[in-house]
């Protein structure tokens, strides 16, 4: 088609301008315009050769421009694919982390329930121990003390009665054996027996007096103090169990809130990651379309050149 161009120097000037214009537009259309303009002008053989070379240069520039566009489109597609893969991997990681975080929430809930059951058992046990200690103190003060003091006082009274009886009996023996008709040896045996009995009775009375005093002033107060200490210890144990239960409840509640917050954070990040992945997928699809357009354009250019 270009071989049909003829013209003079003026035609060459127009052709060069049109070729340059075709290079700026970057396509086959500029070359066609140059050729069409040249066809309208008569040209010599030299001018025809120059015009043909200029047209070929324009075609080559257009082809290079198209190749550059195709290369840019391919590079953009490669970047889009890489970006999509990175965002998809990040999304997958967030999905795994979110699943683990949700499992962590369930584990924290189960741990909280288990811990609270243990705390309730500990509090209930401490309450039972306190109630038992209080009951023992009550029984000791209301039953044991009066009963033991009563028995000790009764035994002491028995001892006093024996001393009184033995004293009276000894006096009667001494009065009875004071008469001369009884033999001296028999009299001494009987009187000595009575004196020994009285002495033992007095000793027994003294011991029982000491026992009663010890029971009343030492044993019972010590045991009463021990019972009260047991009550106080049980009260402290109950308080400690209750405080431990409250602390455990608060600690587990904070742990659950943290686990739920982590789930919420990951859900937010995952939502943003899904949108980013969708955007990257869209950009990759657009890049693929650009590559296809560049391929089609290159094919059309090849067909046009072959027809020319």
Topology:
Blueprint lengths: L5 E2 L1 H17 L2 H12 L2 E2 L1 H132 L7 H124 L1
Parallel strand pairs: 1-2
What does this entry show, briefly?
By secondary structure, the chain is mostly helical. The chain contains four helices and two strands, in the order βααβαα.
Q: Number of helix segments?
A: 4
Please mark out the parts with pLDDT under 50 across 5 or more consecutive residues, or reply none.
1-38
CATH class of the largest domain: Mainly Alpha
- Principal-axis shape: rod-shaped
Question: Which structural class do the helices and strands define?
Answer: mainly alpha
Query: How many domains, as an integer?
Result: 2
Q: Order the strands across the largest sheet as they lie in space.
A: 1-2
Tell me how many strands there are: 2
End-to-end Cα distance: 6 Å
Q: What is the CA-based Rg, rounded?
A: 61 Å
Give a short account of the largest sheet: 2 strands, parallel
CATH topology label of the largest domain: Helix Hairpins
Portion of residues within helices: over 70%
- The share of residues in extended strands comes to under 5%
So, CATH architecture of the largest domain?
Orthogonal Bundle
The overall pLDDT average reads 81
């Amino acid at each position: 088609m270009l071989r049909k161009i003829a013209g003079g120097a003026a035609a060459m000037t127009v052709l060069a301008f049109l070729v340059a214009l075709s290079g700026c537009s970057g396509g086959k259309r500029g070359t066609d315009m140059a050729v069409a303009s040249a066809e309208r002008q008569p040209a010599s053989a030299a001018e025809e050769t120059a015009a043909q070379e200029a047209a070929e240069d324009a075609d080559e520039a257009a082809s290079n421009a198209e190749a550059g566009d195709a290369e840019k489109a391919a590079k953009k597609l490669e970047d889009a694919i890489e970006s999509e893969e990175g965002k998809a991997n990040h999304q997958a990681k967030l999905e795994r982390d979110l699943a683990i975080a949700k499992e962590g929430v369930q584990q924290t809930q189960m741990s909280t329930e288990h811990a609270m059951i243990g705390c309730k058992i500990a509090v209930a046990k401490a309450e039972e121990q306190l109630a038992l200690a209080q009951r023992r103190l009550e029984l000791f003060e209301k039953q044991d003390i009066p009963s033991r003091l009563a028995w000790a006082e009764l035994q002491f009274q028995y001892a006093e009665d024996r001393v009184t009886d033995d004293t009276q009996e000894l006096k009667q023996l001494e009065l009875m054996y004071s008469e001369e008709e009884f033999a001296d040896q028999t009299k001494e045996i009987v009187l000595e027996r009575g004196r020994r009995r009285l002495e033992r009775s007095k000793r027994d009375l003294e011991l029982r007096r000491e026992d009663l005093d010890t029971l009343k002033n030492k044993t019972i107060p010590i045991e009463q103090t021990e019972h009260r200490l047991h009550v106080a210890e049980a009260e402290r144990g109950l308080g400690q169990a209750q405080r431990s239960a409250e602390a455990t409840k608060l600690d587990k509640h904070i742990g659950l809130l943290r686990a739920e917050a982590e789930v919420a954070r990951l859900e937010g990040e995952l939502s943003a990651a899904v949108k980013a992945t969708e955007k990257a997928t869209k950009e990759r699809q657009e890049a693929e379309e650009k590559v296809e357009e560049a391929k089609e354009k290159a094919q059309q250019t090849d067909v046009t050149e072959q027809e020319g």
